[in-house]
Amino acid sequence: MSGAYDLIVLGAGPAGAAAAIKARSLGLSVTVIDEALSAGGQVYRAPSPALTATQPDADRRKGEELRAKLAASGAVLYANHRVWSLTAGFSVIAIGPDGPLTLKGPNLIVAAGAVERHIPISGWTLPGVIGLAGATILLKAHGVLPGRRVVVAGSGPLLLLVANKIVAAGGEVAAIVDAAPRSAWLARLGSMLARPDLMARGAGWLLALLKARVPIYSGSAIRAIQGTEGVESVTIGPVDRDWRPAGDSVRTIAADAVCLGFGLLPSTEVTRLMGAEHHYEPELGGWVPVVDASLQSSVPGLFVAGDGAGVRGADAAPLSGELAALGVARRLGRGGDLASQVAMIDSAWRKSARFGVAMSALAMPPPGAAAIIEAGATVCRCEGLTRATLYAAIAAGARTLADLKATTRCGMGPCGGRVCGEAAAMVIAAATGWDRVAIGQPSARPPLRPVPLAAITGAFDYDELPIPAPAPL
């Protein structure tokens, strides 16, 4: 199956849906493709029809409104389709319930969102350890608690969000362990005031947790997760301002699950695969595509919206989607004079982004956080590589992520470096003192996501394959 459109939008979350709706209002033919069963993204993920009240009412209402507006816009939505490759032009190649799908168009908006940042901790491979974003999927979409007694740990505002959802769903949060000190939160108070509504929402989460008597350990991190067949306990201890373990004042907390995460990274697999220029912006989550005022990358026709252009938060994402859609319309010479719309949306986007950037920076690990990774901790889960194994390769001369991949296969498993890439870079920086920019990015290659080979080739009989006659001698 194939189709051609003025614009292809990759991702149906807040940014992608807003981009599609705006582009349709300007008369463009638009298709949207997403891996989930319905639009909404991570923030407004639709709950299973069999469940009730799996999200706060406000989130559920916003998600339903977004899906209704997208459906009414006339954009063609291909949900439950996994994009595994792209080519210049643009051709987007995906696998769906009915087999392969190819979409073509002169403009592509990548609204692929963000991925979790992981710092490997001893015991993080035990059953019962889950990422913060993974926990929100369990709670929102499936109404499932991550455990009976949960430690929520890492850094950033997702700690409060996940812990609040667990408590609201009737679960027990044994502790919140935040590597950032309270002073780091206070230092960003000015940026938070740009969105008093979001600040009030976060304060509500905190009050609910205090009311539930959830212990909060600021300036602390997990030292190790213990257990045999699953999580049994967690050892935590203080860290200094650079997140290095400080002193021997540790405590052990009984738990059967851990929700662990250290903020978000922009999802840049598509822009890297397409050859777009990137630069390193720590306050935006790490490597981000270089974009102009209309959010067009260095590749003509390739636009980026939402957290994939820099982690600015869910409230800024729809505005960036609209900006990108306006950029596409201008490129096609459609929609007339759009200058006033661009100016108004750009101003609102920058205001909303101030809050999101402050939260992203709060979650960003400082260089010293690499000290949390012990020698025996598994860094690359796909290939079973520990920090000690990576140190040996670094001692032998590996200095970049490409070097580590070539010498150890780090990043060559099914995750494609999404889980281990940043942790491996932290290990290199700690061992060598090299700048993060010099260490480089993980390479992107198809398949962008694992897909069954049979889904690509389809069913066939070898006896029915056409075999050309041998060439004459």
In words, what does this structure look like?
- The chain is of the alpha/beta class.
- 34% of the residues lie in helices and 21% in strands.
- The protein has 15 helices and 23 strands.
- The chain has helices at residues 14-25, 57-73, 132-142, 158-168, 182-187, 189-192, 196-211, 269-273, 317-332, 339-363, 387-395, 401-408, 421-432, 436-439, 453-457; strands at residues 2-4, 7-10, 30-33, 76-78, 82-87, 91-96, 99-104, 108-110, 114-116, 129-131, 149-155, 172-178, 216-218, 220-226, 233-238, 251-254, 257-262, 264-266, 278-281, 286-289, 302-304, 378-380, 385-386.
- The strands form seven sheets. A five-stranded parallel β-sheet has the order 4-3-2-8-21, covered by helices on one side. A five-stranded parallel β-sheet has the order 10-17-11-12-13.
- β19 and β20 (286-289) form a beta hairpin.
- It is globular.
- It starts with a strand and ends in a 16-residue tail after the last helix.
Blueprint (SSEs and pairs):
Elements: E1 2-4, E2 7-10, H1 14-25, E3 30-33, H2 57-73, E4 76-78, E5 82-87, E6 91-96, E7 99-104, E8 108-110, E9 114-116, E10 129-131, H3 132-142, E11 149-155, H4 158-168, E12 172-178, H5 182-187, H6 189-192, H7 196-211, E13 216-218, E14 220-226, E15 233-238, E16 251-254, E17 257-262, E18 264-266, H8 269-273, E19 278-281, E20 286-289, E21 302-304, H9 317-332, H10 339-363, E22 378-380, E23 385-386, H11 387-395, H12 401-408, H13 421-432, H14 436-439, H15 453-457
